[in-house]
Amino acid sequence: MYNMDEWKHVFKLDPAKDISDEVLDQICESGTDAIIVGGTDEVTLDGVLQLLSYIRRYSVPVILEISNLESVTPGFDYYFVPMVLNSQNKKWLVDKQHEAVVEYGDVINWEEMYAEGYCIMNPESKVFQHTDCSLPTEDEAIAYARMAEHLFRLPFYYVEYSGKYGDPNLVEAISNQLSNTKLIYGGGISTKSQAEEMSQFADMIVVGNAIYENPKEALKTVKAVKK
Ligand SMILES: CC(C)=CCC/C(C)=C/CC/C(C)=C/CC/C(C)=C/CC/C(C)=C/CC/C(C)=C/CC/C(C)=C/COP(=O)(O)OP(=O)(O)O
Ligand SMILES: O=P(O)(O)OC[C@@H](O)CO
Ligand SMILES: [Mg+2]
């Protein structure tokens, strides 16, 4: 339906956070390639449905990044399924996903599902703590990327700095290892120049918190990477 290979910029909206209709309209009309709906905690079915019905008035593709089973609903274009590669607890790597497939395996439309191998690099972030991660060294993060590409053949490897701007040198080093697996970078992008810098290396950049903190600047990140 859509060509994800061409996506360079996505906004991530958190169903647990308040946003005005005005900002939501601007996000949907910004020219971004897609909108991801997702967050770490307090993601409810009500919150997800509210965002979905609003975004659906626009033509922008909309993806649910699944954080819990209770908030999964039909109606999205795609579903991204996180697998946290640097979690110390296999619950966040494979068990939660396995539980979902045991229960709903017969009704899943696999064409809509895309796995994301997450490498979470900010120890201060909620998601790092929630999923019991350990901080990888640069070499270890590169090794996860190699596994994502060559062993697991994942569609996406997600370098996640949630809430903090990350290290462009690491993102560059990781990008040099990936050919088929797409590299997603997210975390702390709040200006045009940060968006430009990370999109030199990542296939797709994700802008989340800046939407809530400084929507005017967040909107400018779209043009910065899509010139
Ligand atoms: C379409 C349909 C109705 C289908 C029915 C069948 C069905 C239910 C299919 C689902 C199949 C499936 C395999 C589901 C997986 C279920 C699941 C619970 C997987 C676990 C995912 C996981 C590891 C979650 C942990 C949290 C996490 C990594 C979330 C990702 C998003 C993320 C990193 C958010 C960061 O949050 P952020 O915004 O930075 O946080 P702040 O609030 O601090 O800003
Ligand atoms: O909220 P920020 O820090 O922009 O991060 C975006 C995204 O990677 C969060 O999952
Ligand atoms: Mg967020």
Automatic annotation (TrEMBL):
Catalytic activity: sn-glycerol 1-phosphate + all-trans-heptaprenyl diphosphate = 3-heptaprenyl-sn-glycero-1-phosphate + diphosphate
Pathway: Membrane lipid metabolism; glycerophospholipid metabolism
Positions annotated to bind Mg(2+): 14, 40
Coiled coil residues, start to end: none
SUPFAM superfamilies: FMN-linked oxidoreductases
Named cofactor requirement(s): Mg(2+)
Gene Ontology MF: a single term: magnesium ion binding
Function, as annotated: Prenyltransferase that catalyzes in vivo the transfer of the heptaprenyl moiety of heptaprenyl pyrophosphate (HepPP; 35 carbon atoms) to the C3 hydroxyl of sn-glycerol-1-phosphate (G1P), producing heptaprenylglyceryl phosphate (HepGP). This reaction is an ether-bond-formation step in the biosynthesis of archaea-type G1P-based membrane lipids found in Bacillales.
Protein name, per record: Heptaprenylglyceryl phosphate synthase
Gene: pcrB
